Structures are given as C-alpha cells and as structure tokens.
Amino acid sequence: MQNLKELQENIKNANNIIIFSHVNPDGDTLGSMIGLSKLIELNFNKKTTNVIIGRKPDTYAFLNSIDECRSNNDIDKETIYDLAIAVDVAAKDRMVDMQEVYFKAKKSINIDHHITNNGYGNINIIDANASSCAEVIYGLAKALNWEINQETAELLYIGILTDTGGFRFENTSPKVFNYAAELSEQGANPTKLYRLCYESKPKAMALLNAYAIQNAVFKENDKIAYTIITKEDMKNFNAKGDYTEGISESLRQINTTEVSMLLKESENQTTKVSLRSKNIDVAKIAETFGGGGHHFAAGCTIQKPPKIALEKLMEEIKKSLYE
Ligand code: 5GP
Ligand code: MN
Q1: Closest Cα to atom 11, ligand 1: which residue?
Q2: Which one of 11, 33, 144, 263 has the minimum C-beta count within 10 Å?
Q3: Rounded to whole angstroms, how far apart are CA atoms 227 and 117?
Q4: Is the four-CA dihedral 311, 314, 316, 318 of positive or negative sign?
Q5: Distance CA 12, CA 313 (A)
Q6: Residues with CB under 6 A from ligand 1
Q7: Which residue has the higher pLDDT, 64 or 213?
Q8: How far apart are CA 44 and CA 47, in angstroms?
Q9: Calpha distance 166→187 (Å, rounded)
Q10: How much distance in Å is there from the Cα of 20 to the middle of ligand 2?
C-alpha cells in the first residue's frame, strides 16, 4: 500500500508525466498505458504523454485513443519529466531507446506482472500473480478509490482479456473473473471487446497463421513444435509485424505439444523468439538468451539467424524437457 500512496502523491505533484509501453506492443501494454493515462486524466485532471515503442500495431488500430499516442521517434530525449511510468515492461531494455528518458525522470515507476521483472524503477508495483498489467492497474485504482468510467473500464478489460488469451490461460484466476465482472458492470461489453480483439483479424494475418502451422516442424515425439517465419514470408503475405501474434499459441493447441515456438527472422541477422509451453518454465529458457516473460509464455531476441538460433534453443528446451 505504501508504494501505491507514493504513486498517488507523485501523480498529484507532477507537472509532466510520460508513460511507456513495451516494444512490439500487445493488448495488455496498450490497454494499461492508455487506461492509466485516462484514469490520470479522470482523477487528477492531467494529460500524460503516452509512448508506443516500435510500430503502432494494426490489430489495435480500433483503440480510439491510439492516435493520441506518440512514437518513440518523436520524443525529445532532452526533456526531463517529473514522472515516467513503464507499464507491462518486463525489463528495461524493452523500452529500447526510451530508457534514457525513463531513467532521467525525477521519479520512475515500474508497474508490471512479469516474474522476471527485476524492479528497475524508483517505485515498483509488481504482482507476478496478476494475469496482466491491466489487472495490477485496476487493483491499484480500486485501492486508491479512483473513479473509473466506461472508457477506462474497456481499456483495462482489453488488457486482461488479451493477456489471459480470452480467459483461458493458467493466469485466469477467480480474481480475474471478479475484476472482469466489475469492469463489465462499469460498461466494458465482453462481446464487443472480444470481437474487436479476436474477430477483426486482417485476412493476411489469418493466412500467415495458416501457412506457419502448415510449415511447422515437430521434434522429440512431437513434444516440441516450432515454425519459422522469414522476412520474405512477411513480404509475400504483405504482413505487418504484429500479424505473427498467436502463432506460437496455435502450435501449443496440439495435444502432444509440450513446448511451442515461433522463430521470426528479424533485422540484422537476428531472430525474435516466442515460446509457449504447457508445463515447463519457458521464462527460464528465454532468460538464458537475455529475454524473459512468464512461466508458460516468454520471449527473447537471439543475435543469430533463425537456423542457428533454433539449434541453441533446442538444446535448452531438451534440457528442460528431460531434467
Ligand atoms: P511474445 O512471445 O508474445 O512476444 O511474448 C510473450 C511474453 O514474454 C510476454 O509477456 C512478453 O512481455 C515476454 N517477452 C517477449 N520477448 C521478451 C524479451 O525479449 N525480453 C523479456 N524480458 N520479455 C519478453
Ligand atoms: Mn502483460
């Protein structure tokens, strides 16, 4: 509670506040960032600067206020903010070139739910048992008696909905259902938000997903399922960066799968890896490559092309499978 009070005081006293998403933003970091921003506006009558790091994802273009968010490329790095808040940012390097601005701020706040978060802020509000960062933010809003309206309820609901994979992943606790019920009472409509998050995919995204599954490779008695997407594949499908979301989860849906992964060829001979599992701790595996995340959903970037990254990953996964 002490750090919540400190957060409240810092928001009250700040003249300028900046909030950061993580790179390659998802529904939780966006719902959390814009949700917190709207809560601050509603309760403290203050506007914040919201920064999307990396591309603005097409799949969340439906968020009304996404256009008000700035890109990391148009933030002046010299400005010193009174308060900088990172939401859903597991590690400081997930803020990429915004770390400088974050750490230069008079006070830095770190609100998150990743078990691998090391508490890099001056004030850390981290709950590794929470399904999502949006759940942490709703919890603190309740504890601090903040007013919530339909818009903020919808944004936080989107964070919870997407990080629980539609209330299906292991992080779907009784508290998640209680919070979702309260948020829907405050105006978040489950069907409307489900359709926006899950039934509004661009055609190219659905086709890329099908292609990736079709090309999947199965190893170790089908316990490991992986697929590789190259830059050329992305071009062929006319796919935006966020169109690969959900592919690793699709591979986990197979009954034999213990660990699934997507290896995505990225710039400069690097590979972005998305790991999912049913039992083994993939956050631990991701951490050995400098990444992180959650027990059953984690990621990392390996400074090698996909084929070489794959060999290294397979070694670590096999160790975890048979230890
Ligand atoms: P995704 O596979 O969807 O990109 O990420 C799965 C989970 O792992 C998310 O919670 C995400 O925040 C985390 N994650 C993904 N990539 C990285 C990374 O490079 N570093 C860290 N620390 N976490 C990551
Ligand atoms: Mn999250």
Answers
A1: 293
A2: 144
A3: 28
A4: negative
A5: 47
A6: 90-91, 94, 116, 274, 291-294, 297-301
A7: 213
A8: 9
A9: 18
A10: 13
